[in-house]
Amino acid sequence: MGFIFTIIGLMVSLDIIWWIVLARLANHGSARIVVSIFMAAMMIGLIGIIAARMSRAGWDRVVPKFAVSAIFIWHFIGLGLLTAIGLLLVPILLGQKFISARAPSKTKQSVKSNAWSRRDFLRFSGALLPPVVTIGLTGVAMYQLNQVRIRRFVLPIAGLPGDLDGMTIAQVSDMHVGRFTKGEVLEKTVRLVNDLRADLVLLTGDLINDALADLDAGLELTRRMEARFGVAIIEGNHDLIENPREFESRVRASGISFLLDESIIVNVRGFPVQLLGLRWTRVYGERRDAAIGAEVKKLLEQQNPDAFPILLAHHPHAFDAAAEAQMPLTLSGHTHGGQLMLNEQLGFGPALFRYWSGLYERGASKLIVSNGVGNWFPLRVNAPAEIIHLTLRRT
Description:
Blueprint: H1 2-25, H2 29-55, H3 65-102, H4 118-144, E1 149-157, E2 168-172, H5 184-196, E3 200-204, H6 215-223, E4 230-234, H7 244-252, E5 257-258, E6 262-268, E7 271-277, H8 288-299, E8 308-312, H9 319-324, E9 329-332, H10 348-352, E10 358-362, E11 365-369, E12 386-394
Parallel strand pairs: 1-12, 2-3, 3-4, 4-5, 7-8, 8-9, 9-11
Antiparallel strand pairs: 2-12, 6-7, 10-11
Helix pairs in contact: 1-2, 2-3, 2-4, 3-4
C-alpha cells in the first residue's frame, strides 16, 4: 500500500510541476485557460478516483468512461512521456542558455508586431500538445472499449480421444466488469459466445475489475453464456482486490462451477473431460513462479487417468509446470496480450511475461493465452480484445 501511495504522490507532484511549466510555456491567454482546465481536471480526477476506491463509494464507476479514460491515459502514458521528454530537453536548453550568455550581445531595435514568430507558435503548440494528444488517445480508447473479436485456433492434440475429435471450447478471460468494461461490449460478448455454440465455455479469471459491487452483474453475464456440456470459471488477481473471501464465497454460492484448486469432470460427447482450476497464487516477487509451479503440481495430483485433462490457470507461467507434467492443454489470460505492444514481439507482453498472447507449445503440451475481453486500462495497442474459439483435433 505504501508503494501505491508513493506512486500516486509522484503523479500528483508531476501534475503540479507540469501545470506550472505548461502555463508558463503558453504565450496566449486562451492556451493558459485550456492548460489550467486540463491539468486541474486530471489532478482532481486522479485524487477522486483513488478516494472513491478506498472508501468504496463507487462514484468513479458511474463517471462517464471518457473522463475516467482520459485520467488513466494521461497519468499512465502522457505524464510519463512528457516527463521523459522534459528530462531529455533540460541539457539542450541549458546548453543554449550557456551559449547565449557567452555570445557577444547585439543591440537590436525593437519592432512591435501582431504577427506570431516561429517561437511563439512553437510555445503555443507545445503547451496545448498534452491535452490534445490525451483527448485524441481517449477517443481511440472509447472506440476500442466496445470492440471484441473472435480468435480461432485449431489445435492438433496428440492422443486426443476419438470421441473428443472436433470438441470446441469458448474461452472468455479478463472480462473486468466495472469501470471500463460495461454495457454494450458485455452484451456483445455474451451474444458472440452463444453464437459459437461451443461444447464448453471456460472463464479464466478477472471476472470483475476490482469492485464487488460489479460481481452480481458479472455472475449474471456468466449465467447467460451457453455451452452444450458445461460452463466453468476460475479466479484472477483483480477478482481479489477488494475482498478475496467474499468474492470466493459469492461465486461459489452462485451455482456456477467455480474451481479453486479443484477439479470437476464433465461428460463431453460421451467422454469424461476433467477441468482443473488453479487458485490465484498470492505470492509476489522472485518466488512467484516457483510458487505457481508448486501449486500446479499439487493440483495435478487430482488428475483422473481416465479423463482428458484441461488446466485453467489465470497466470500463463503455470504452463511451465503443466508442460513438465505433460498436460495436453492449458488455458490462461492475465496479460491482456501485452496491452500496449509496438509489434508482436516488442511491448509490455514480452517485457513482463514468458507467454503473453496466443498459442505456445512445448513438446506435446499446448498453452493458449487470451488477450481478454475487458480492460483495467482503457487503451490497447496491437493487443485487441478477444474471445478465443478452440477446436481440438486428434493426431
